[in-house]
């Protein structure tokens, strides 16, 4: 398997591919280079006839701690839209794959990291996992379909609270909200065990079931919803609040929004 800078891929003897993000290189954030490498990796794994299941994981402290704010600071509306489109392309590779994707989550799973986890078929959380959509703190909104998906999973009231406050929730609360299927001591170990079980099943049966499970996620209306999110996300980069929110984060201070 091709060597990557920001992630590593290991294929077990049970034909399970483990995609582990190298946070020493990526600084725990979902930056543009990591997104591009994930796209290439998922494309290859989806095409590999031997691979039966894909596991996505980070390290013991972080799954993905959101977008790289430095990359978003000062960008134009069109650049923001292009960034969100890349995320959509990455997510489609997971949703439209015939193979099951399992997210093994330790530590922080925030922003774009949560949006990526939400498109995985199964999500396992460690006891230390924390989930959130903190974009409001930067004067923007989730730009990768997170609003539609989290609302579908947790309901309008819970989704509104998460999105409006930007606060993180614990693994226990995420289980209660059905964001994850299980809380386990070792998410990666449990994901491998589950993937080994899935690898023994009929690939055609799983592919067919996955297509039916996901059929309501990418119909015309859902695609329109995601496009509206991407468009709204992008337009916020033309307003002062996004500049203040991201600047405050990079300067390690509380943002002061004018709210005019």
TrEMBL record:
Domain of life the protein comes from: Bacteria
Transmembrane annotation, as ranges: none
Statement: the UniProt record of this protein carries the keyword Lyase: yes
Keywords assigned by UniProt, alphabetized: Lyase
Entry annotated with the keyword Flavoprotein: no
Family as reported in the entry's similarity comment: Belongs to the enoyl-CoA hydratase/isomerase family.
Protein name per Swiss-Prot or TrEMBL: Enoyl-CoA hydratase/isomerase family protein
Organism: Bacillus seohaeanensis
